[in-house]
Structure to design on (186 residues):
């Protein structure tokens, strides 16, 4: 049971038997009273986010999960299935744990999962992914009064807005945090 008084972004914290992922932390000073740490955490059991404020110097329990390389196989309504690349064991992960990253998973793609006490607690996704455009509405000439974008569908079924020059068959980069177009792949 390691303890720390310096929580950092990306750390896994255990509190009241639940495991949280530290999404962000901010330090707030209050003159003579000392500082406060405002932690934005993701509950890995429910998938919800919450904020918690603690006094600077308060000891919190953190965990160090095991990182395993897995290959994405397929999914059904509530579960994603991966294969452990070393033991070839099939692992099932709830869609609640993965969250919106399910929009960017391609069959056969390799990614990392975090495992603690034999249970998968999180999927570590890439910051950007490259996906092929399978459907693109044609660009309409003169349609630049507002934002010059159009809707496209990528190979995973995810839909997003992109610039007018993107065509079917193009490979685009998508920021997985914001779920927005971030560029055309080379």
């Amino acid at each position: 049971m390691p303890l720390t008084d310096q929580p950092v972004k990306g750390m896994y914290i255990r509190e009241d038997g639940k495991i949280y992922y530290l999404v962000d932390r901010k330090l707030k000073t209050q003159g003579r009273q000392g500082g406060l740490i405002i932690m934005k955490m993701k509950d890995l059991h429910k998938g919800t986010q919450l904020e918690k404020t603690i006094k600077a110097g308060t000891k919190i329990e953190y965990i160090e999960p095991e990182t395993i390389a897995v290959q994405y196989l397929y999914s059904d309504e509530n579960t994603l299935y991966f294969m452990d690349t070393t033991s070839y064991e099939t692992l099932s992960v709830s869609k609640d744990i993965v969250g919106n990253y399910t929009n960017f998973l391609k069959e056969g793609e390799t990614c990392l999962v975090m495992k603690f006490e034999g249970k998968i607690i999180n999927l570590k996704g890439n910051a950007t992914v490259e996906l092929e455009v399978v459907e693109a509405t044609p660009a309409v000439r003169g349609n630049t009064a507002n934002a010059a974008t159009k809707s496209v569908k990528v190979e995973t079924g995810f839909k997003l807005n992109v610039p007018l020059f993107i065509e079917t068959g193009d490979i685009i980069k998508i920021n997985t945090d914001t779920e927005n177009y971030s560029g055309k792949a080379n």
Observations:
- The first strand starts at residue 3 and ends at 4.
- The chain has a mean pLDDT of 87.
- The chain has three domains: 3-63, 66-124, 128-184.
- Helices lie at 95-98.
